[in-house]
Amino acid sequence: MILPIIAYGDPVLRKVADDIDKDYPKLNELIANMWDTMYNASGVGLAAPQIGLPIRIFLVDSTPFSGDEDLTPEEQKQLDGFKRVFINATIEEETGEEWAFNEGCLSIPDVREDVRRKETIKISYLDENFKEHVETYSGLLARVIQHEYDHIEGVLFTDKLSSLKKRMIKGRLANISKGKISVEYRMKFPSLKKGR
Q1: What integer is the mean pLDDT of 183-191?
Q2: What is the C-alpha separation between 156 and 144, in angstroms, rounded?
Q3: Which pLDDT value is given to residue 194?
Q4: Is 123 helix (H, G, I), strand (E, B) or coil?
Q5: Could you report the per-residue pLDDT of 133-159, keeping only the tens digit for each?
Q6: Which contiguous run of DSSP H or E holds residue 165?
Q7: Is residue 148 a part of any domain in this protein?
Q8: Which residue in the list 94, 148, 153, 184 is annotated as catalytic?
């Protein structure tokens, strides 16, 4: 089932999400719905806060990036068919040089900016079967994971921009939170609070 994606401005996107256990209600159904929602919106990642749940789950399918001609054949191979569910993830370390890449977010449509992130990450997480993993990723794959991981930490990519860039996009972000935007997928906008 395709779920609405929560728009910028909703407080759920600012919460540090909670760990879950394998008894979480209808977990397999939730994960299936998240895949459907992500693919419907042409995303490469989706975190539970983006569908209104402050829990530590995100998923990644980096296959759409594998056709990027700027990547080496090795990088393309790493991205092609990479599909994972990350539950209760913790980034253990981030290493290497920071590099810039143009990022966007399904919760912040039509805003894309260069974001600097470290090259390599080491991450521990549980998969959908609650099997433990500790893995190291680099390059574009690390970046996709870092972006989704930020969501379960209550951080958005716009937080990582310079104060000048933040000022430049302030009006566009306000319009998103008010629903003044046209998108090809279902979204849920924060209710406008009156009398403030």
Answers
A1: 90
A2: 13
A3: 43
A4: strand
A5: 999 999 999 999 999 999 999 999 999
A6: helix 163-177
A7: yes
A8: 148
What are the tens digits of pLDDT across the range 65-101?
888 888 888 888 888 999 999 999 999 999 999 999 9
pLDDT at res. 73: 86
Local structure of 66: helix, strand or coil: helix
Angle at 111 between CA 17 and CA 192, to 5 degrees: 65
User: Is 148 one of the annotated active-site residues of the chain?
Assistant: yes
Structure tokens at 191: 């209710």
What whole-number distance in Å separates Cα of residue 71 and Cα of residue 54? 34
Distance from the Cα of residue 145 to its chain's centroid: 7
> Per residue in 5-16, pLDDT tens?
999 999 999 999
Residues making up the binding site: 105, 147, 151
What token pair was written down for 65?
């990036």
Binding residues for Fe cation: 105, 147, 151
Question: Which CATH number covers residue 41?
Answer: 3.90.45.10
Question: Could you give the number of structural domains in the chain?
Answer: 1
